[in-house]
Specification:
- By secondary structure, the protein is an alpha+beta fold.
- The protein has two domains: about 5-120, Aminotransferase class 4, branched-chain amino acid transferase, N-terminal domain (D-amino Acid Aminotransferase, Chain A, domain 1); about 125-285, D-amino Acid Aminotransferase, Chain A, domain 2.
- It is about 30% helix and about 30% strand.
- The chain has helices at about 25-30, 45-60, 70-80, 120-130, 155-165, 210-220, 235, 270-280; strands spanning about 5, 10-15, 30-40, 40-45, 85-95, 110-120, 135-140, 170-175, 180-185, 185-190, 195-200, 225-230, 230, 240-245, 250-255, 260, 285.
- β11, α6 and β12 (about 225-230) form a beta-alpha-beta unit.
- α6 crosses α8 (about 270-280).
- Bound molecules: pyridoxal-5'-phosphate.
- Pyridoxal-5'-phosphate (PLP) binds near residues 187, 210 and 245.
């Protein structure tokens, strides 16, 4: 079965899908994107992701090329055509194709919409969560608007590669004041000495994760206290637990930061509990 992607109104074989070399995402990374988990064949937290896409579009003065109802249909079609039970759908909107010039193309230039799906390995994800992941800390050298989910991800790419080169799965980015903002592709969390679950406020320094928002609802339902405040690397080193969240990882326990063992060095109870509860809480749409 060949993979099927969506490009500007057409379903095409993934391997043959393409856009113009004049596309502004190719030339300037002038685009936005979303990644939505597919679990049990359903789209998880779809509304949250599409609302954030609309916000990213507004912030960058980008017009979405199709209505939200059409977008929802496209995503379902990709899940069905690619027979995804567990995996992800990716969608990207760019400022379209135009002769290379930094200024926006002339009004009416169609924006580009690309979407595709991939199947994941649920057993491998669960095994990873049972083992826990290692992270390394790196300076947060990104632009000042990482709250916009833009395809301009070069600092994130470099950080992630540096993490892999160091034998870690994720990089935690540290701002000029010494606070951990978030991961290269995830939000960052600790459980402090008092048992409070702590994560950076969703201001312009981080991407306001949709998974993060669902974790807030789980915590509220379970009477768990989440504190939104910046935390330092020093605090993370002595935390009871640490973990990351995101649509591709849901909740992944962190067992070491910069080679230092976190808590007992095994995945923590809070992280594993939130992971176990996640799909009972997160809205799933067929
Ligand atoms: N922070 C960054 C930089 C990300 O790239 C991501 C996800 O890709 C997240 C946080 C988590 O966001 P979400 O839970 O919406 O996937």
């Amino acid at each position: 079965m060949s993979r099927i992607a969506y490009v500007n109104g057409r379903y095409v074989r993934h391997a043959e899908a393409g856009v113009s070399i004049d596309d502004r995402a190719f030339l300037f990374a002038d685009g936005i994107y979303e990644v939505i988990e597919v679990f049990g064949g359903r789209l998880i937290d779809e509304d949250g992701h599409l609302e954030r896409l609309a916000r990213s579009a507004r912030e960058l003065r980008l017009d979405l090329p199709v209505a939200m109802t059409a977008l929802r249909r496209i995503l379902r079609e990709l899940v069905a055509r690619n027979r995804v039970a567990f995996g992800h759908v990716y969608l990207q909107v760019t400022r379209g194709a135009a002769r290379r010039d930094h200024v926006f193309p002339k009004p009416g230039t169609p924006t580009t919409l690309v979407a595709f799906a991939h199947r994941g390995d649920l057993a491998a994800a669960e095994a990873k969560a049972r083992a826990g992941i290692r992270v390394v800390s790196l300076p947060d050298i990104r632009w000042k608007r990482p709250d916009i989910k833009s395809t301009s991800l070069l600092p994130n790419v470099l950080a992630k590669q540096q993490a892999r080169d160091a034998g870690a799965y994720e990089a935690w980015l540290v701002d000029e004041k010494g606070f951990v903002t978030e991961g290269a592709s995830s939000n960052a969390w600790i459980v402090d000495g008092e048992g409070a679950v702590v994560t950076h406020p969703a201001d312009s320094a981080i991407l306001s994760g949709i998974t993060r928002a669902t974790l807030f609802r789980i915590a509220a339902a379970e009477g768990m206290k989440i504190v939104e405040r910046p935390f330092t690397l020093a605090e993370a080193f002595i935390a009871r637990e640490a973990f990351i969240s995101g649509a591709t990882t849901i909740v992944m326990p962190v067992v070491a930061i910069d080679g230092r063992k976190i808590g007992s060095g095994a995945p923590g109870r809070v992280a594993l509990g939130l992971r176990a509860a996640f799909h009972d809480f997160a809205p799933a749409s067929a």
